[in-house]
Amino acid sequence: MKENMKENMNYDSIELLSECSSGLNMAIDSMEYIKNNVEDKQLIQIINKYLTSHEKILDDCCTLLHDAGAKEKEVSVFSKALSTIQAKIKMMMDDDKSTAAALLTDGCGMGVKTISEELNKYKMAGDEAKDIAKRLRKIEEDMIGDLQPML
After folding, report:
1. 2 pLDDT higher than 60
2. Is the separation of the CB atoms in 34 and 95 below 8 Å?
3. Which terminus of the chain has fewer Cβ atoms in its 10 Å neighbourhood, N or C?
4. Which residues, including other chains, have CB under 8 Å from residue 133's CB and lie 6 or more apart?
5. For all residues of the chain together, what is the average pLDDT?
6. 25 versus 3: which is more confidently predicted?
7. What share of the chain is helix, strand, coil (3-state, %, to 5)?
8. CB burial of residue 106 (10 Å; 0-12, 13-18, 19+)
9. What does the alpha-carbon distance between residue 140 and residue 25 come to, in Å, rounded to a whole number?
10. Distance between CA atoms of 17 and 11, rounded to whole angstroms?
11. Distance of CA 101 to the CA centre of its chain
C-alpha cells in the first residue's frame, strides 16, 4: 500500500502538502501563544478544540510527506517572527478576549485564502493531498464561526 501511495504523490501533491504543513505549524504556534496569554475560559476551550484539530491534520500531512520521501516545509524565520511580533504588540496593547479572537480570526481568514490559492495552483494534486487541504480550510472556516461571538 505504501508503494501505491508513493505513486500517487506527484509534484503537486507534495507541494500542496508542504504548504499545508507550513501553514499548520504557523497556526499551531499562534494558537499556543495566544492561549498562554489569555484568561478567558471560553476562548481557551475554543483554542484547545482547534489546536487538537490542527495537530491531527498536521500529523496526517506529515505522514503522507514522509511516506513520499518528502520533508515538511519550514516556516520562514521572517514570517514566524513577524507573526509573533504582531501578536505580542496587539496583545500588549489590549489583552482582552476580543483582541485575541480578532487575531485568531485574521489568521484563519489568511489560512482559508492561502489554502484556496494553493488548491487552485496545484490542481494535479492527488485526492489525499486535496482532502487534507480541504479539511484544513474547513476547520479554519469553522474556527472563524466559533470566534465571531467574541469579536
Report:
1. no
2. no
3. N
4. 16, 20, 115, 118, 119, 125
5. 88
6. 25
7. 85, 0, 15
8. middle
9. 14
10. 10
11. 16
Inter-residue contact 78 to 27 (CB < 8 Å) = no
What is d(CA 63, CA 2) in angstroms, rounded to the nearest whole number? 11
- DSSP labels for 107-145? HHHHHHHHHHHHHHHTTT--HHHHHHHHHHHHHHHHHHH
Q: Which amino acid is at 37?
A: N
Which residues contact residue 140 at a Cβ distance below 8 angstroms, ignoring those fewer than 6 apart? 27, 108, 109, 111, 112, 115
Least confident of 71-80, 104-113, 128-137: 71-80
- Higher local confidence (pLDDT), 1 or 99: 99
Residue 98 three-state SS: helix
In contact, 72 and 15? CB cutoff 8 Å = no
| Mean pLDDT, residues 39-54 taken together | 97
pLDDT at 76 over 90: no
> Do the beta carbons of residue 52 and residue 28 sit within 8 Å?
no
Give the separation between CA 8 and CA 14, rounded to whole angstroms: 10
Higher pLDDT: 2 or 96? It is: 96
**Torsion angle of C-alpha atoms 72, 24, 117, 129, degrees rounded to 10:** 60
